[in-house]
Design goal:
Number of strands: 16
Shape: globular
Helix content: 25-40%
Radius of gyration: 23 Å
């Protein structure tokens, strides 16, 4: 069934990952409401600039700069929402990300809370997040409101420069806050602190031009398989859009239920997600986890370099093949975005790159860039399964991609081992994603830090700003983070965590199976370090346009 949504009532960053729509620049602002009146004035002034999910009729209809907003639970509290409404909010949203650090693996899980507090466990977080929701402060530095700005570039030949509309919108926003008596919060970053969080695509020089890439600072191509749900594109999405981005059923790929990502609509259990009163307040809204993830690029490159030396000796391959293979086996995709599940060996990957004109002799760099960009946006980069690779010979079971989106891997009818009748691995062509479709998340956000792929140390201020959306913070984001990233049993990995995002203070291994027909042994990476560290964040409610209006008017009525 095609669900029709009121796209004019939904914020645009819910239905669109702006970076995919050529908005490679972003700035994230945080505000504190000193009084209910100030907060309401601010929301009313902001409301007219908020970008909705309404369809763009063409490039000329696209805004040069988008504006979206979200509120923390303390922000709703200051706005004096009725007690009945506040009490019905989810526990995770009420508590906030800092209070859930143990669940998320953001503090040492071998220590008690008292020990962690004595050791100042969040000392590495940005000051804005250390001060927010800090007990005993009376909430004087709490983050109440997040405003996100995403901007287009100056054009193909000046792609590394944001459109002037970004700076104009920043100045307008800061003036609005000052006029309303709302305080802009700083304390962002390490060393020289900033008043807002800046982010952008990672750029590369191609054919004399500086152009945005789909890479993050480790060098992986990212953001390919974001979910698609019913009504998201207003009935005008291409039929192929859902391939590899929806749910696998016995009918093939289908869009996920709207209620997995928008409140007030049926979800995959054919129920309405839990919602506070009145229904109009939460309908067409969602929840957001703002999460700043610092990347220790120096440590990552050093570990890969050392492991590649050993891998090359064990496997009898050259250094270049060893490096590229280890990177792919950690991630689940080759560095250019080609999935291991479809192209599983280095030699096949090199040949595939030549065939697709990504690289090779006689291929113009700009042509290769455009060919690769076209490929990662196509169904071919997403249309694969895991049920035919239960042993992980093609893509390791503990690889990052298999953990964050298990696809059909967890179908209970899947079998490991070899079919005695055929002598080949068991296959389950009817496998579905029934045990995965309730764990999907919308990924928004962009990398932050130096906008290039040059060598960087662990101390460089760089990483990814994750804006993770879903109808349930606990069932979607927190489950994936706790059970699939920081835990290994669902993937037969024991205590091994995700090789890229996992905490490796206690477990430093990643197992790479080999195809039995190759005659090569499995390989175990044993020197992993914690490559990604959380630098803070919080949970937010992303209201509909209706909800913004009634909060600004102060008339949220739960009766």
């Amino acid at each position: 069934m095609t669900r029709e949504l009121n796209l004019d009532d939904i914020q645009g960053n819910v239905t669109r990952a702006y970076g995919r729509y050529s908005f490679p620049f972003a700035r994230y602002f945080f505000f504190h409401f000193p009084s209910p009146e100030a907060g309401r004035r601010f929301l009313e002034g902001l409301r007219g600039k908020v970008t909705t999910a309404a369809l763009w009729q063409g490039d000329e209809d696209k805004p040069k700069c988008t504006t979206n907003m979200a509120l923390t639970f303390p922000g709703l509290l200051v706005l004096q929402l009725p007690v009945r409404t506040l009490q019905a909010m989810p526990a995770a949203f009420i508590e906030g990300m800092k209070a859930r650090a143990f669940i998320l693996g953001d503090r040492d899980q071998t220590k008690t809370e008292a020990d962690a507090l004595r050791e100042d466990w969040d000392a590495h977080w940005d000051r804005i997040w250390r001060d927010s929701r800090e007990p005993g402060t009376g909430g004087k530095d709490d983050v109440h409101c997040l405003v996100t700005l995403n901007a287009q570039s100056m054009g193909f030949e000046q792609a590394e420069k944001p459109d002037p509309a970004l700076q104009q919108r920043c100045e307008w926003l800061c003036t609005l806050a000052k006029d309303c008596g709302v305080r802009q919060l700083g304390g962002i970053g390490r060393g020289k602190e900033a008043d807002y969080q800046e982010a952008s695509a990672v750029f590369d020089t191609v054919g004399g031009l500086t152009l945005p890439t789909a890479k993050e600072h480790f060098g992986f191509t990212d953001g390919i398989g974001d979910p698609v749900f019913e009504g998201q594109h207003g009935g005008k999405g291409k039929p192929t859009t859902v391939i590899g981005r929806g749910k696998l059923t016995d009918q093939g790929w289908e869009p996920l239920a709207t209620g997995e990502f928008l409140l007030g609509h049926p979800d995959e259990s054919q129920e309405l997600p839990p919602s506070a009163q009145p229904p109009e307040f939460m309908r067409n809204g969602t929840f957001l986890a703002f999460r700043k993830l610092h990347e220790n690029v120096g440590s990552f490159q050093a570990v890969v370099e050392e492991e590649a030396e050993r891998y090359a000796q064990v496997m009898g391959v050259d250094k270049e093949e060893a490096v590229e293979t280890l990177l792919a086996k950690m991630c689940g995709r080759w560095s250019d975005g080609v999935p291991l599940s479809k192209v599983s060996t280095y030699s096949d990957w090199v040949a595939f790159g030549k065939k697709m004109k990504f690289r090779g002799e006689g291929i113009d760099p700009l042509e290769g860039y455009m060919s690769n960009l076209k490929y990662i946006g196509s169904p071919e980069a997403r249309d694969f399964r895991y049920c035919d690779d239960m042993t992980g010979a093609k893509c390791p079971g503990g690889a990052h991609m298999r953990r964050v989106n298990t696809r059909d891997y967890l179908d209970p009818l899947n079998k490991n081992g070899t079919d005695p009748k055929t002598g080949k691995p068991f296959e389950n062509p009817k496998a579905t994603s029934a045990l995965n479709k309730r764990r999907r998340i919308l990924r928004r956000g962009l990398p932050y830090g130096p906008p290039n792929l040059e060598h960087k140390s662990d101390d460089t201020e760089q990483g990814v700003i994750m804006l993770i959306m879903g109808a349930s913070l606990e069932r979607q984001f927190e489950f994936v983070q706790q059970q699939w990233i920081q835990y290994g049993l669902d993937f037969h990995q024991g205590n091994n965590t995700c090789p890229m995002l996992g905490n490796h203070d206690h477990s430093t291994r990643h197992t790479i199976p080999s195809d039995p027909e190759s005659g090569r042994p499995p390989y175990v990476m044993s020197k992993l370090k914690t490559f990604v560290e959380c630098r803070g964040g919080d949970y937010f409610f992303v209201p509909s346009m209706t909800a913004i209006r009634i909060m600004a008017m102060g008339i949220v009525d739960p009766t």
